[in-house]
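Researcher: Before we compare anything, I want clean individual predictions. No alignment, no superposition, just each chain on its own. First chain goes here; please echo the sequence and then give the structure tokens.
Model: Echoing the first chain and its structure:
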Amino acid sequence: MNATKAMTLLAAVAVGLSAQALTLAVKDVKIAQRYPWNGLVDIDYTVECDDKDADVYIYPVGYDADNNQSVALYTFTGEGANGKAVKAGTHRMTWDMAKDMGQNYNRAAFSIKLHGYAGAAPYLVIDLSPGANAEKYEVSYLNEMPEGGWTDEYKSTKLVLKLIPPGTFLMGDDSTYTSSSDYRGGNAKHKVTLTQPYYCGVFEVTYQQWKLITGTEKTGYGNGMLKQPVRAVNYNDLRGATLGAGWPSHQQVDATSFLGKLRSRTGVTFDLPTEAQWEYACRASSSEATSPNPNAFGLYGMNELPGEWCLDWFQQTLSGDQTDPKGPSSGIYDARVVRGGCSCVWNNYYSSDYSYINTSNKSSTYSDFSRASLRSSYRCYQPHSTSNRTTPNYSWDWSTFNVYGGGSIVSGTFGCRLVALPAAK
């Protein structure tokens, strides 16, 4: 089957992060292969918006129905391509399908969907330089990465997040593990659909960014670590122990928490990602999260230490098709999910779906631990804070075991990557 027949049309929709109420639609999408075939595909579309001067950003997303997952598309030219805003009207962009998918790509159930957002530029930037005593932080947007790339200021005095378009992917892992100490549970692959766009941190929050927002220093601050991901952060530090403990019933946080301070100074609803958002961003439209930095979404360090907090309560079993999952209403061991990577000597293996919790004596399970280390993006859990740790003595939760291969480390040596979301309904 040739490339033309392999492409079908999905109706385009518009879901915005606009600061004002706008009626916005992307419609009349027409897809045409160049003839004779040269690897290029023309995409004509019309933007309708009641504000004729509004900047609208177009994000094309492919969908592979055979594999039940969205496919990131990158190589575009023309109107609306590469983060360039368009106005209301009819436009054309051209996709280099041969470069993105291969000259002879032959998928029988492949389609393209255009997402249009008003006022949602590809990058969200927060200027933290006024420090912890500031009333407001400047919020700005970028259409593309700055010339020269992400310099050190984006790991120190500025936070930068990338817009992640909606999509569908297979979450979890179908591998079978028979060890009696394996606590993965039924984390079988299952289809997850995220219907809303969200901004996701290009980098993890660093020590210096933490101090600029909170006015406090976390363990490890200094000694050349200022631009490194902050560690020794617990869930209550991030969201607070009162209102902040209320997810998924609501999205509120304590005013004195890290996120409370950041929200009040920006007017942006920052939060931790849900576990589904984290894995979708990590996979970046691929079946596995591979080693390159950045990944296909332009995010760095998702397969590296430290592990990153998610909103969800921890549950042993993940299964069943879901749309915009928020996780369970409570968790085993009063614990929240942590996702992230191991940087062990076996880190030539990568997977964004590995889930390993050990329930036997940690002093005698190094072989099992080594096997887990082969898969560098693990799923584990951690109680909110040391004070409310309820994990039984026979279990370990990775925070109390050195992921480099032996010895104890301080509880809660995890960090965070932020997302910016529309207000919870």
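Researcher: Okay. Second chain, same rules.
Model: Second chain and its structure:
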Amino acid sequence: MPKGKVLAWILYDWATSGYGAIIGTFVFSVYFTQEVWDGDGGTAAWGMMVTLTSVFVGLVGALLGLVLNGVKTHRFFLALFIFVGGVSGAALILIKPEPSYAIPALFLVGLGSFCIETSFVPYNTLLRVFVPQERAGRTSALAWGLGYVGGVLCLLVALVLIQSGFIPDDDLLNVRLTNPLAAGWLLLFGLPIVIALYKLPKKSLDQPGYAPVAPTKERIMRLLKYRGMWRFLLSRLFLAEGLTALFTFGGILAASIFGFSTEEVLLFAIALNISAGVGAIPGGFLDDRFGPRFVILISLVCLILSGIVIGVIEDKLTFWIVSIFLGMFIGPVQSAGRSLVAKSVQMNEAAQLYGLLGFSGRVVSFIGPLLVTVGIAITGNDKTAVWIIVGLITVSLFVMLSTPKSLGHIDKSEIFEESF
């Protein structure tokens, strides 16, 4: 596969990074809970929006992987999701700091987040199609690392918009302008992968990995049973719960527990993205050297230890230091999960397994945010969220430990043709 198509694939992580950092986690989420929502229920309302969005992402993602697979279908939906996600994100500039805008804000963020998250099923499938299995770890990590770098650059531009003084702060316009920034980032850098897919030769669309594969009950069961893959998916489910809760409430908790201002939340986000990018790149080489299972286990242990420390400290400086350390393992644990699938299957099996991966990570990912929302409501203490996240990741670790050591090692045979 020409390097240009691989580069276009890598750029998509960069394209979506600004959207997640600005709209999903660090800027608009704080703006919504502190400025738009009237009263103390903003965090809970945001959590419910994330919950509903996650359910739809899991269901539609599974449909794209299991039924509507094949490059022809995937490239159409990828282009559609990029366009709708960009438009809905840009429209958030219209959300003023008034309670009457709360429901439209939740709808637009939910729609955009659905498009971005669901687009990763066809996108991740292309890792197995475009990249040799021997280089899947470092390629996945490079994309993830560049994604974090893109998030940092986007947040830096957002910080300039907010603090420059050149943009009037009437109705917090300087903050609201960061939304079309994230949307434009998505549209600009998401375009290369769409162009690359539509420029594929017609004859290649019938080759393995490009042509659609009809799902059968037998094929799906074999995919799940192969090397204990179902245990990996179960572990991924609990990890996704914890990370979704972390990404959803990270900026909100920094503001409510440690008193971060909007500017401090932005700087905090930049620091976390830098640490995540720094961790992702060496994680990819360790992935190709020792296997993705090894990288996932080490990352989970470090995430748990960091979370425990955050749960007991009160000092802002210590929170900064531990959070940056934690961030160094967020990139590797996610990237290694993506490469594990790429190394475990052949090209014509990738879409279905990535569909199952998306399903396991999203269809019940409302549980993480819901547990956090309920926990905070019961205890009245926002730090309850930290312990819930630690608990979810701990369960993920124990399930992952039960998987066979051969999981993620390259196997040239087709799963469907193996006997069990």
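Researcher: What stands out in the second chain?
Model: Residues 415-420 have pLDDT under 50 and may be disordered. Additionally, The chain has 18 helices and no strands.
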